[in-house]
Amino acid sequence: MRLLAWMLILGMALTAFAQDDSLEITQATGNNLFKTAVENYSQGKYQATVEELKTLETSLSKEPSPNRETLGLIQYWMGICYNRLQDFSEAIGRFDKSLALDYAPVDLHYEYGQALFAADKLSESRLQFRESLKRKFKRGVSLYYIGFISRELGERKKAFTFFKAIDKLPEEEAQEVRQAAEMQVGDIYLEQVEKRSDAFKSVETYVIPQYEKAFEIDKESALAPQIREKIVKLQRKYDLILFQLRNGRPTLNPPYFLRISQEFGHDTNVTFSPAQTTISSSKQASLYSKTDLIGRYTFYVRDYISIAPELRFNNTYYFNREPEIYRNDNYLIAPAVRTAYEHTLWKKPAAFLVDYDFSEARRDVNAEEKLEFSSRSHAIMIGERFNYWDFGETTVRLRHRMLDSYIESSNSNTSSLVFEQIKSLKLNTLLFYASYDRMRVTDDLFDTDSFTFRVDLIMTRVKDWFTPSFGLSYTSTDPINDRDARGREALINPSARISKTFKKNWRANLKYDYQKNDSKDDENFAYTKSVYAFEMEYIF
Amino acid sequence: MKLFTLFLMVFFYQAAFAAPKVAVVKLVRGDADVLTLGKTTPLKVDDWVESGAVVKTHEKSFVKLIFVDKSQMNVGPNSEMKIESFSGKDSGVIDLVKGKIRSQVSKDYLQINKDKSKLFIKTQNAVMGVRGTDFMISTNGTNTSTVLFEGEVVFNKLEQRGEVSSSKLESIVDRGVRMFPGEFSVMEANRPMPTVPSLLNVQQREKLEKNQDFSADKGPSSTDNESAKSVVPAGLNGQQVSNSGEVLKSEVAQVVTVDSQTKSPTSSDPDGFVKGDLVKPANGSFVHIDSGVIIPPGPGSVLDANTNTYIPGQEAGKVGADGNYIPPKNIEITSDGKILVKTLDPTGRQLASGTLSPTTIAPEDKPLDGAVLTDVSLPGTNTVDTRFAPTGGFTGSNDPTRAISTSSDVIIRAKPNQ
Q1: ipTM for the complex?
Q2: Residue B412's pLDDT band (boundaries 50, 70, 90)?
Q3: Chains A & B: contacts with CB separation below 8 Å
Q4: Which end of chain B is more exposed for a tag (fewer CB within 10 A), N or C?
Q5: Which stretches does DSSP call E strand in A195-304?
Q6: Domains with residue ranges and CATH for chain B
Q7: B368: distance to nearest CA of chain A, Å?
């Protein structure tokens, strides 16, 4: 009996609670649902958040007088969740409901505008961004959306006005969209002018400067390369800048080359050869410093001729202050002009080359710690660069050099025939060099005929860290009027180099160079030396 | 009498040396077997599985195991998992040969120091030390991907095959990456270390987390909206158009007191990067669970300030109801990680196909140099147009600056906003 009574009480209690639950949501349950929704939302569980909010919505709407504000919040919140879930049609519906409930937090129009924009309802979207602008929410971005949508709708003037209005906003609001807005203005200009017959003039006068203005705002931004690409594309399209020569060879970009390097090295046997007719080895080692600067700018005359003035300067200083060593201190100034006439040979790009080189060297020839004139030279070169083989370019040159030395008897004329070949391997590059040099000196005892062969192997980067290269050169010199004393001389010169590029412009090199010159005249011409050096380069 | 003695000896031998029973089968869907001491038997509910046993599931099959410590392990379809050890005295070791496991490890298991792993899960090329509770790990035998839902795991490359002691495994995972809830990491076959953990795409995470028993349909999710375009207008990026969400927070705070401890998962920099061996996919990337291919959010993605992840547009692909990534129509990702590109005519008919094979690892100082996607080989005269997703995570050879390849199978874009 007692058991039956207990069962009845329990049954009635359960029924009563069940009825309450189905009628309305309690404050506590509502709070818990909200809390769960907050927790889910904060973890990015947007679908789960929506489910919680739907439960709340259902419960609240069953109440006799549901709180409109809470209902509005639920709709607005669900709208945001659907936006994150990329379900824009649902989001639009929820934002609509929220507005119908007069619930419009400051960012609602912005989120609503985005949903409409993604759903391609552009006019409605623009209205929402206008509201967002009025409510001062993300004014820069809202203005951008309005301008962008106006452009999409073909309303260029409106678009222009809104993009330009961004400039009037306080800096902190305008800065994140200013560059993109200026780019859009450039796009509008382009749309307006590109159908004209003289489009190239307007593109050059208005469109490109506008893109450049946009680019200058932040050259490092993610958008900057896109703007740069637009400029280059227009320059190509309207032939505003020469990109390609007549034979298909691309022009140099940039047209300038400027390199500064500083080398510190150790020479195990400093040799003295101011007039390049004699060599005397000091048999002493010294540390040295060498600074080198080279600059060149290539001008294009129409699409087949290039003229490149060049200037080189270098200065060498020996730290061992023995007279035999420091008489090698020197500097050199060497301007040159290099010209190329581009044409085709065997239906492939080729160039006829004419170069003029001048150099003047000053050296401490008298070991008085004073740099004095040591030599001056003029050289004319004609050559042809062509692509006979598929694996790389070939260059053949004829060169004549006239050298005036500080010792008149050492003045010389040298005629050379040079052959250069590039061979591109799968990963590496080989460079071959061969030359025949015929030097005739005022004092004909020093006349020589020589052959030089050189091979360089430039390798690809190893482990993304450094680039090695190796060279081997052999020079055979025939002192035609002094064979008895000197015999046929042979210079062997292996070298190795490891380079590492830092950032974009810096490069560090570790270099090793070995030279061994064999001569019957041990005293004056034979020598052996090693040079170890560290060099830092900056290439502009 | 002799027979009786022999029987007693066999009985005691078995009792003394039989492998311990470590898990009980709670649910079997489809066909699944267990291989114990060279003998294969079909698995049934309430069967006990011993240490050393290999559990195999077949297509569309699934097994739920409850271990002696109350940890739950769900073995997905087409999977093979060996319980190397689960003694109760030391950290357990599971070898996942192929397939996927969803596991909820008991917090109290072994009462081990929280900085030590309670369980190790090995695959062909990776090992995970489990220090938390809820995670999923998947391997195709070459790549291994893992997603963490709750707790903490440590994850690293495993070069040594065969049985490895738990102390050795502990020292390996200690040198690996530490993952927090919501993050994923992929160990690719040819890379020296796993990807830096990144936050997974929020939709994928939510669906994977729900799909504990691998039972959800593979069909598209309910929020498919293929006609939608990107929220990000050309010229801006996902960070610029992002809404900080502060307004919603303050509106909600007026209705309910928000626990300040409730924090959204954040990973400081939502963008991806490549720095030497370190590869971090952008937050919000998808993972193709079966192959470990990472699909980064495209340039039209919006930064969700609430979760600090990018939300990609539909053109980058979708998430199925089961949580797996569904690529766009003209793309197929095979379970071995190949990305097949199909050229479709306007009606959706396939005209030609090819394979995207990103091949070069991007060097450090020019991180985008090596990103050239090539080798789109064709069986006909048609040219495969790889520009199928100009704003998505995939990139064709027309736009090499958008992609960074980390191996022949995985494409990662460094920054969604570039």
Answers
A1: 0.77
A2: very low
A3: 142
A4: N
A5: 256-267, 271-272, 280-281, 286-297, 299-301
A6: 15-194 (2.60.120.1440), 246-254+267-412 (no CATH)
A7: 13
